Amino acid sequence: MKNKIGRVTLPSEQNFLEPTKELMKRWGADALRDSDGTKLDEEIKQLDAKIYTTYFVARSHNEFAEKHPEEMQQLYLMSKYNTAVGNDLEVDILDGYFTEQIEADYVHDPKKWWEVIDRTTGEVVNPADWTVIRETNRLLIHNACPWHEYTISFLAYMKWDPTQMYNHITNDWGDKPHEIPFDVRQPHSNQFVKDYLQKWLEENPDTDVVRFTTFFYHFTLVFNNLGKEKFVDWFGYGASVSVAALEAFEQEKGYRLRPEDIVDQGYYNSTFRVPSEAYLDYMEFIQKFVAREVKDLVDMVHEKDKEAMMFLGDNWIGTEPYGDYFHETGVDAVVGSVGDGTTLRMIADIPHVTYTEGRFLPYFFPDTFYEGNNPVVEANENWLTARRALMRNPLDRIGYGGYLSLAYKFPEFVNYVEKIANEFRGIHETINGVKPYSGIKVAVLNAWGKIRTWQTHMVAHGKWYKQAYSYQGVLEALSGSAADVSFISFDDVVENDIPEDLDVIINAGDIGTAFSGGEKWLNEVLTSKIREWVGNGGGFIGIGEPSAIHHGGRFFQLANVLGVDKELGYSLSMNKYFNNPVKSHFIKEDITEYNFGESMKNIYALSEGTEVIEYSDGGVHLASSEFGRGRSVYIAGLPYSHENTRLLMRALYFAAHKEEDFEKWHASNVYCEVHAYPAIQKYAVVNNSDEKQVTDVYDGNGKKQVMTLGASEIVWEEM
């Protein structure tokens, strides 16, 4: 098939003209970009392609940053826990931190901005009872209670940008200078970023797209004393904190934040934590500031007839593409890294932009492109996983990042990218802007709601985590399924009515997390509204520890809806008789294998009215229950797999009383899916595996045909 042209962005580098021209032709690339650590030379910039240029707003300007060290970006950090053995306790506040990245802030008065806490009692230690020893970065606590634990929450400067640090270590950049991040909230920095951008725009007439990487504040990424990641939260606002920000917050909101509001017992307001009102206020405060400052930069770009593209990563904190202020920025496009179907939808569904772009894996870095390794394996897995989501809402563009000279050494990889670039263009050309068929409407319920659309159970973007994969699989399954998915918060339910057209609500997560809900379930309005909604015919699916908090003799606050609860050891004297699985059930009708990941122990059925679908190891792992005119389904965990995707879809249709609609636009083989587009009278049958598959295919009218699909094949049919 002759290669088509467009919708692909190619990374290039200096002294690589001829191979760049070759790969542009083979991959059909119509845009060229530099990467962190590479530059495009003048010959490459003159090629017939859009030129993306990486632009760092608040880093990569050491000549300025070194003149204004007081305007370095800041963090609130917490020391290790330290146990007092007498009345005096000396603490090394930087113990465990990487001093090439972090230094304590003594510019601002520690007595005003730091906080010492007796973690045994939770009491704040009077500043008169501690002394800072600046020369050794130590703090001496007087009148300590022996055998109590203490921590110090202190302001620090971040003197090495975390992403540049990561790339420095990964790509062995040796003596390359450590880039110092500075804070645009500060007066000199704010003026500098605007003056420099104006100058840069005039000096870079060949740039068509200014690729902001990103804007002002990096997600929380702090390294330990070994130069390895100490903690990382892709959603963390820690690096947006400064004395200037804290003072402005107090003036705007009318109250002062404590260090503890940011440090949060050492959890740093992880996205897994149920957010406090103070933290939500702080997030909103930062978002408003970031939107306003981004708008100024974007306007400058537009005045030069260039496009402004935002990278969804690195310094993206405060932009919140699904938040209330993103539309005010005027950004033309968003580009992000595609780790799976979930992250693809996170990018593709972003509103208020002209186009979206996905950076596919693997990056052209030495950790993947080395002798003896086959990068096609990772590329194929990445493409097949992401393609499911593309069929629901395609990105406008795809591309890669890194060193093109590395990828060029792997001919099999070059051939593979040529194939998927053509396949992507074909998908986009066919279905862009076309609403796909959705048989069911689903809302994911958690503490964050729409601001974390397609972003639940993530720690560091699309990476696997043992404590999260059993829930992240829910979103991954939904990302490519024929379902209309939204995200609502507990506050949405309390303050508003549940949408009338909603079929099913999903609540998934471990007890106490933002995703399960923790203390949010103590709100009687929340539980009453959901019980009423299900009782009137709605569907509810709980996964893991839904609605979990021990209260009123229940562990699951919606136990009466779910038909199951968890044994905590308090009611061992009460027998649990209802543990015989039903012989057959709609939910597992055509599934022979499924798994519950980390699963849950000690889940038991409340009554004979609960249909136990899977029972083993002394506990219920899959069950359904009637509640009024509605239904619920309990699942102990749901990692992503083709079989578990089928299980979830069957559970959704069952909970919604829509079993008769399940085989509309349906493939019997779990490795295949049907995506229908009524507006253009077409449907696609997709093989999501790298092996040949045979499947029954049902159209929207219930007609069946048998189809054989080659490995990874897509077959398009007219309705």
Overview of the structural elements:
- The chain has 719 residues and is α/β, with parallel strands linked by helices.
- Strand 20 (440-446), helix 14 (469-479) and strand 21 (483-489) form a beta-alpha-beta unit.
- Helix 10 crosses helix 14 and helix 14 (469-479) packs across helix 18 (642-655).
- The longest helix has 27 residues, at 277-303.
- The protein is globular.
- This is 1,3-beta-galactosyl-N-acetylhexosamine phosphorylase.
- It comes from Virgibacillus siamensis.
- Residues 665-716 form the Lacto-N-biose phosphorylase C-terminal domain.
- Pfam families: Lact_bio_phlase, LBP_C, LBP_M.
Any chance you could write out the topology, listing elements then pairs?
Elements: E1 8-11, H1 17-27, E2 31-33, H2 42-45, E3 50-55, H3 62-65, E4 74-78, E5 82-83, E6 89-92, E7 102-104, H4 110-113, E8 115-118, E9 123-124, E10 130-133, E11 138-141, E12 149-158, H5 162-170, H6 187-203, E13 209-212, E14 220-223, E15 229-233, H7 243-253, H8 259-263, H9 277-303, E16 307-311, E17 333-337, H10 341-348, E18 355-359, H11 375-390, E19 397-399, H12 404-407, H13 411-431, E20 440-446, H14 469-479, E21 483-489, H15 490-495, E22 504-509, H16 524-535, E23 539-544, E24 548-551, E25 554-556, H17 559-562, E26 564-566, E27 603-605, E28 611-616, E29 619-627, E30 630-635, H18 642-655, E31 666-667, E32 672-677, E33 682-687, E34 693-698, E35 704-709, E36 714-718
Domain Lacto-N-biose phosphorylase C-terminal: 665-716
Organism: Virgibacillus siamensis
Pfam families: Lact_bio_phlase (PF09508), LBP_C (PF17386), LBP_M (PF17385)
